[in-house]
Structure formats: C-alpha cells, structure tokens
Amino acid sequence: MPGQPGQQASQGQPAMPGQPGSAAASPFGFPFGTPFGNPFAAPAGGFVPGQGFPPGTGVPPAPGMAPGVYPHAPAFAAFQGAGAAMAMTPEAGAATAAPEAEPAVSAWTRNAPFTATLSTRQKITSRNAEKDVQHIEIDLEGSGIQYQPGDALGVWPVNAPALVSEILERHKLDGTETVKLADGSEATLRDALTHHADITQNTPTLVEQYAALSKLRPLQELVEDRKALDALLATTPPVGLFAEYPHPLPAQQLFSLFRPQSPRLYSIASAQDEVGDAVHLTVGVVHLRHHGQHYMGAASGYLGHLLEEDDDVRVFIEPNRNFRLPADDDTPIIMIGAGTGVAPFRAFMQQRGAAGATGKNWLIFGNQRFTDDFLYQAEWLQYRKSGLLTRADLAWSRQGEHKVYVQHKLQEAGADVWQWLQEGAHVYVCGDATRMARDVENALLDIIRTHGRLDEDDADDYLNTLREDRRYQRDVY
C-alpha cells in the first residue's frame, strides 16, 4: 500500500555473491562486490521468500525517537491519515476494470468485517533506518475471503490505550462516564474513545468547536487566523491541542469533538494463489513527537506495534479493479514504486510466479538507503535469479552526493521503457500522488516525446490511450 527494506544490515551478513565487475554485470545496477553488508542474504531467523518469518522471530524495537528524526509537518500529515502509511485508495477517474473474472462479492464488508488474527509481524527496515516498516501477515482461515493482486485490505484500528488515557486525564475524567454513540447506543467513555472515535486526526471543525466550548481567547484568535490554524493542524494532534490549551470538558462534549472511527486501506502485498487463507501487508508506521510525548498513527501503530501475534483484527477486502495485472500472462509489465508502494508489486510477482506467466517483469523501486530500506530485498534477488524478474532499477534518495528518485531511473532507461511500451507493456505506479506519481508521469511523458518523437499534444494523447487501454494504472494516495 501503503510507504523500507528487509534484512538488517547491522546483523553482519556475507558479501554479495558473484564476482566483482561493472554495474552492468549486476541485475540491480551496482557492481557485485560493492562494499555494503549484503541485505539480500537472509540471515538466520530472517525473512525467507515464500515462507514468511520463522515462528518466534524477535521483532526489533522501533527506531529511536530523537527530536528531528521525524519532521513534524510531514509526519503529522500522515498521522492524520491523509494517505497515512500506505493507506491506498483507487485513483479518482481511473480506468475501468480489466476484462477478467472477479471473485464473488465477500460477505465481509466495511460494516460487517471479518475478525481475523495477526499471525506474523516483522520489522523489515534496518535498526539504523529512519523509517519503521513492518511486514504483517494476517490469518483469514474460515472467512472464505477471496482477493486479487491490486486489491486493498480494510483494517479497523483500535486506538492506543495510552493515548486514550492521556486524553481522559487531560479532561479530568476516569473513563467510566456514559456517553451516547452516533447510532444512539451507549458506552463508557473509555470504550467509546478506544473503538468508536478517530482520536488521532485533528480537523478545523474539532479546533473550532473546542475553541468555542473552552472560551479560551488565545485559541479563538488562532481559529480566526487561517494561516495560524493551518500551521496548528499540520503539527498538532488533538491530544496536543488539549495539552497546549487545557480546558476540561464533560464526557459527552469531549466525545462529540471527534469524528467516528473509520477503517484504513492498505495495498495487499500477497497473492492468494501463493499464500492461501492469509493476507500480507507492508505497513509504514507513522511516529510523531509532540509536547514531549511519542505517538503513532492510528492504524499503522495498531498493526505495527500494539497488536500481538494471535490477537484479533477486524478486516475486509476493498476491491481495486483499476489496478489489475494483464489478462494475458505473456504481457510485459513495468512496476514503479517508492517505499511501501512496492507492496502490490510483491503480490504481482507472487501471482505471476504461481501462474507460470512468461511476460517480462521490470521493477523500478526507490527508497532512502540501500542498506537500510530495500524492502523484501531477498525475495527480489531470488526472483531475479530465477528469471521471473527480468530487470530491476533502484533509486536511493539519501545515499551518495545527489538524491536519486524513481523518476530519475525511469528517465535514464527511457529508450528501454519506450521499447517495452512498443512491445505492449503495462505500466503500474504505486505511491504518493502529489509528488512521486506526478514526477513519474512527467518522466513518462518526456520519454514518450523524446523516444516516440511526438509533440506535447501527441504525447498526452499517447498516455491517455494507455490509460483507456488499461496499460497505465496507478494506485496512489
């Protein structure tokens, strides 16, 4: 979905297999023998392609929360859920569904989720990584749930007990107070805040209502200043608002400030033909510091740290018919993703492997650092060795003198991209809509203009034709 690597470089891994040589000799664009710890090698107790993580594998702690590691504004934007940690939704205006058989509609829905269990969780970024990415495996046995690569899993989060307790304490409440829920039923305030309210997301309405109820003049003046309000919303969760502008509210008023809880969507990182009655996710955990306290995203923290193995988790499938593999297994595909945007491409590779697909597969993946953030690297190397993965181009934005992103790798390989398009390749993009996906689209247009020798209007028409033919699909958030 979903935002990040695999084996931890700090565990001391053997050198890259093969002989030193030019970058061209390596399937991943760097010479064999490059002096990195080899994150491709699966250490004892590490991730094994096709098998997941061995039982009893320890989950390393989250990275240290030193101030400045997670810049407030971008971290809180994700904390608020505006595309939080790989939450994926079908792109507005995307192409219609591919002409392939879809599984029957599940009995389990957003309003009637299946109670599954967490079977495996493993951190797949290194101990030194700035990002905290967790590989999640959920057991669907007994559900009858069916899904396809490209679909999303809806997860109903449960709010962190520590966050609920802090909110109660700041309003001088003990949680036993009775409140009325949106459907007219009643619950204790603690239960309502834990299960029925979105207490991580700040909104203009929440701040305005709290300012009116508290009658705190400094807060009322802030609300009247749109720039000041936007700045507060970008950096301050609701609990931070209560800390900075203290004014205890009665139980019902407090509960009514929050929007109802909502599920988060994560791109599925597995193919059912490979994993059976299970579903895998790649979750980037959002971490935030405010008023000296550490917080996590509602769903990402729930999945990535709060749930224990065998705990219940309520889930449902959200089909995404606008992000589907080609119906013809001989068709080549180009997969472009950054961070946890690699999740659906893992599912694509599992599906193509299980189906014995003969079409070529090209991965263009980017993240911060090779040694810290190459998600599922052991699996990608295995796919490359087996021949299932035809080509891989990797971009590292925090390694070396210059920042390198996926769009740069795309442009460098422009002639080959154009050749693949002439061979009928389908192009898939997964990741951030406002930056990465936009830059990738601009790079594609430049490739079409340059190597197709088309003017700007004709290049736009060419890309639009790819969309209409379902050869250019995006899963962006």
Class from secondary-structure proportions: alpha/beta
> Beta-strand level of the residues, as a percent range?
15-25%
CATH fold label of the domain at 333-476: Rossmann fold
Q: Which CATH-level-2 architecture of the domain at 333-476? A: 3-Layer(aba) Sandwich
Question: What does the average pLDDT come to?
Answer: 83
Can you tell me the CATH class of the domain at 333-476? Alpha Beta
Q: What overall form do the CA principal axes indicate?
A: globular
Notes on the structure:
The structure is a single chain. The protein is of the alpha/beta class and 477 residues long. Among the domains are: 161-260, Up-down Bundle (NADPH-cytochrome p450 Reductase, Chain A, domain 3); 333-476, Rossmann fold (3-Layer(aba) Sandwich), CATH 3.40.50. 32% of the residues lie in helices and 19% in strands. The protein is built from 17 helices and 17 strands. The protein has helices spanning 72-79, 161-170, 189-195, 204-214, 217-224, 226-235, 238-244, 251-257, 272-275, 298-306, 343-355, 370-373, 377-386, 406-412, 414-422, 436-452, 456-468, and strands spanning 114-123, 132-139, 152-156, 178-180, 186-188, 197-198, 259-260, 264-267, 278-285, 287-290, 293-296, 312-318, 333-338, 361-367, 391-396, 426-431, 472-476. Strands 8-3-12-1-2-9 form a 6-stranded antiparallel β-sheet. Strand 13 (333-338), helix 11 and strand 14 (361-367) form a beta-alpha-beta unit. Helix 15 packs across helix 16 (436-452) and helix 16 crosses helix 17 (456-468). The longest helix has 17 residues, at 436-452. The radius of gyration is 23 Å and the shape is globular. It is an enzyme of class 1 (oxidoreductase). This is assimilatory sulfite reductase (NADPH). Pfam families: FAD_binding_1, NAD_binding_1. Its EC number is 1.8.1.2.
